[in-house]
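Aim 2 progress update. The chain analyzed this quarter is reproduced below.
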Amino acid sequence: MEAIATVSPLHAIHEAGVAAIRTEEAKEKPVLLPSAGMGEWLRQMGGSLAFSTYQSNRLFFVMADDASQVLAQERIVGPAMGLALDSAGLWVSNQTQVWRFANIGPHTVGEFNADAVFMPRKGYLLGPCDVHDILPGVMFRGQYHELLFVNTHFNCIASLDDNYNFQPVWQPDFITSIRRPDDRCHLNGMGSRDGILTFATLCGRRDTPLGWKEIKANGGVVLDIHQNRVLCEGLSMPHSPRWHQDRLWVLNSGMGELGFVHKGVFNSLCLCPGFPRGLCLVDNYAIVCVSKVRTTSLGQNIPLLERLAAKNLRQMCGLLVIDIHTSKLLHWLTIKGIQELFDVEFMPGIRSPFTPGFSLDALHKTLFHFPENEPFSIAETAKKAS
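Predicted C-alpha cells:
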C-alpha cells in the first residue's frame, strides 16, 4: 500500500513565501539619486510618490523630510505593475495578482513617524493575465466596479471576481476570442473621465497571437471605449491615458513622447530620455516613469533609440517631473540598478507613507485598525443587531 502524500501546512507555505521575499530584500538594493530640487518640490506639493518596478519586484515610496531631503522606502511585492490610490488605501498589482493596502492612519514605527500606514488586507490571484493599468471605484455601462484591470494577455479589461480568475467587461471590437492568454493587440492602458471608464491604449489592431509586434512602430491606437471610437492612431506603443485639465494625456512610448490628444492628433509636449510608461498628473505637473529600452527584440524597430541618438541624449531609468504648461523638465529621480519601471502615483496629503509589505510579521501583529464609533465586541455587535 502506497503512502499518502502529505500537503504542506499553510503556515509552512507562508513561511516559505516570506523567506523568498526576505531573500529578495537582502540582495543589492537600487540606488535613488534625486535632483537638487526634488525634495523641496515634494514638500511644496504636500505629498509623496509611489512607483512600481516589475523588473525588481518592488514598490517604492518616495518622500521628503522637514529639511527637504528625499527619503525612500521599498518593499517586495512581486513583479509590480499598475498602482491606484483611492480614499481609503492603495491598490498594488503585479503581473498575476492584485492587492489592496488599507490606509490605517498615522503610526510611529520605530523612529519613523508615518502619517499613513498601508497594510495589505486582501488579494486576488488572477492567473497569467499580465496585469497592466488598474482603476478603482469606476463606473462602466451603468455598473460600479471596485477595481478594473487591463488584462493584457487575455485582450480585455476585466473586473475582480470571487470565483473566477476574472470577469471581462470590455474587449476591442476586432478581437474575436479572449479564451487564451495570447496578447494579440497588447492592450495596456486605460483611463477614466468623471468616474467612468472611458479610454484605452493598445499597440496594434491585430487578432493573432502577438500580432501587435509586427506593427509596434506605428500601429498604436487610443480609443474612447465609452463611445466606441478611435481618438488617435499611428502611434508607437502608446501607454497611460490620463484625463487632466480637460485634456487626454498619453505617452507615445515608442517615440519617447509625453503629449495630449486633440481632434484626432497627438500633440507632443516633450521628448523623454527613455521609454516613458507610467504617468500621473497633479496640478500643472506630469510625473512620468521612464525606462531604458530593452535590448531584446521588443526594443527593436521603434523610433526612440534613433531619436535619442540624434539629440545625443543618454537613456535613464527613473522619474521625471515636467511642467505641462511650459514643457520644461523641473525635477527628476535617477535610479541605478534597475532598468525598467511601470507606474507612478502621487499621494496628496500623505507626506510620510509607510508599509510593512509582506515580510514584517511583527508589525502585522502589533499595528491594529478598528472601526471607529462602532461596537467592537461580540456582545455589543449582537445587541446592536437585535
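The first strand starts at residue 31 and ends at 34. The mean pLDDT is 90. These observations will guide the mutagenesis experiments scheduled for the next reporting period.
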